[in-house]
Protein 1
Amino acid sequence: MTASIWLWSHLQATLLLALLFSLLPLQGAATRRVLIPLAALALPLWPLGTIDAAGFLYGYLGALSLPGLALLGALLLRRLGGTELLTARERHWWRAALLFGALLLYPMALGLGPFDPYGLGFSGPLLPSCLAALAILAWFTALRSGALVLLAALWAWQLRLGESANLWDYLLDPWTALALLGVEIRRLLSRRRAPSDTPGSTP
């Protein structure tokens, strides 16, 4: 395991564990802000045979994409410290962009379309050029977080910081796509239930 992949696996393990711990009914803001980060930083280093806990988790989940890691970090900051990194507009953009990419990529990669877009991520200028153009567009439309993360994914792919040689794997991962799909389904269901909860409506 290279140093960059080691850092990648430990970063995602720390973020995932911190998110899990943030769901526990811990009392006190100081407790949440101190104990949760410390536990999330320490547990990935716990030895499990020839690997540590982070490597074990990485072996089962694979690598989360850079947008997935960025969204996890933003969610944790909001849950633990009340810091909001993303505006409502940016959150909407992230959900739309990543869900659109997942719906475009995964069904066709499984053979449900006329061609496989996954192959575009191995080489050739088309996908990197589209990604750079999208990052520029995001920057000039005040979606700075999107621009920075997209450029970070492009650079990580160019430098081969991750295990994959395909650019798509730096942009999307199934776990993030499923989580965002679940959020979107929950939002749609809550909107459908909302009219029945207004005063004067029939039960």
Protein 2
Amino acid sequence: MSNTVGPLARTSTRRLLGAGLMLSAAMTVAACGGSSGSSSGSGAGSGSGSGGTASTGTSSSPGVTISLKSVPNVGTVLVNGQGRTLYLLTSEKGDKVTCTDSNGCTKLWPEIALPTGTTAAKAGSGVNASLLGTVRDASGHMEVTYNGWPLYTFAGDSGPGVAHGQGIASFGGTWYVLNAAGSPVTGQSQSSSPSSGSGYGY
């Protein structure tokens, strides 16, 4: 009797162990499949995120383009690739940079800096390519210049087609837009310019 039961018990035990192993293997495969799916999902997410960043980097990397555009109240002046009005600071003639991060100037007047790996700005419509250049500022940024003037946008400009920074005196000089020859345009901007000056002057 014990001889008969022994083999049956062993057979049952083997079957149970075999079923347990199969179930465990199935669960492992499912878990791997799930984790691989989620990891691939997260990979796709981060891939698409980095793809977005890469494409942004790609679009901005060739993207420092300086062009001419008509801006109300100041005429046809230099603008960046987004159409925002560009300015010079009169104390900076001849590639001299006095508007810096350390004196807080670039918070109001962001410089036009070249992205890493870019060596020059592109000349857009109406711009004389021979007047484009670069200068290295105190922070090591390569800033774009035009006719020896480092170029800036103005934080007080809401977007393209405005020049609220025109004629503001701050940071050791006066801010003016530039014409095609790279000379300052000293004419008045909007009638709101004085209030802009009082709001953003230094």
